[in-house]
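ingest -> fold -> write
write: protein_1
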Amino acid sequence: MPIVIKGSSSGQVTVDVPATAGTNTVTMPAETGTAITSATTSHIIEVDMFRMTADLDGHSGTITANLERCDTNNFAKIGTGMSQSSGIFTFPRTGVYQITVQADIQPVNNDGTCVLSTQTTTDNSSYDTASNCHFGDDAGTNTIIGTAYSQCFFNVTNTTTHKVLFSTSSFTSGSLLRGNSSQNETCFSFIRLGDSQ
């Protein structure tokens, strides 16, 4: 038989016993707090990842093409996921997001500083660098490939004005930012950690 707790002026909460055999026990902690429910947004409810599908050679500026949501090797997102148009990523809901970049870089000889930047905006117009991936080959004579990482936290209080893009600089002709459509080489992850602050 369900237990009904009525509010002082309106509304009620019904606690019902599950329709299964056996004895079930719920132990309440000796603390004050709020129960987590399916409507609570303070836990992780958004996880997504995009990647580059082809190499960029000597590129400088915003990455606008050859971007896809990861779709191989049993990938799955949580929640609505990010949306992307011409390299500008829009968040599905407000919250504090961890943005992590993996940059697979193959610099040409003497290309000392290849940079992949995470750039954010809070006015849907002017972008600032939040984090950088750096990799280069100052004086080598052999082909090298390196993987650089960066991450930042971004407090998204408005999904219309708060956006992120990824931009390259200091890549000379022959230096590659590597991409692949079947596995992650250069990729971007987005994890909503909790409510906006």
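write: protein_2
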Amino acid sequence: MIIYDLSCRLGHRFEGWFANAGDFERQLVEGLILCPQCNSHDIKRIPSAVALAGQKRPTGREAARVASAVLPQSGTAIIAAYRQFVSALIEHSEDVDNSFAMEARKIHYNEAPQRAIRGNATSEEFAELADEGVAVVRLPIIGEEELN
């Protein structure tokens, strides 16, 4: 899995998750990548915060310019990026529905194959999993109607 920082022709910034660099190039050529804010297919890769971290640390005005280049410009952009992240997780995980707690335990204790899963768990089940040291996370799903 490779994660690229991307931008559309209008300057909306977002992440794209791809199997490899070739997968990114193929999807770009086929017009499968689009901006989550404006649906533009005119997309380009931009320098990532990780790439910038390996360089000399900027100061003063340069630091402010770099920060504005890697951070979303608005709350809407943050929500759009979050929704894209959750969509990628959903696409690359198995839905185990109400068996989530049981399957998470099986994976944790090597009684089932390692894999990404998603599903439903009560607050009590979630707390019990955390107490057992099972690495789980709750992610709210933000719908279109919740953007306003």
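write: annotation protein_2
The first helix runs from residue 21 to 29.
The radius of gyration is 19 Å.
pipeline exit 0
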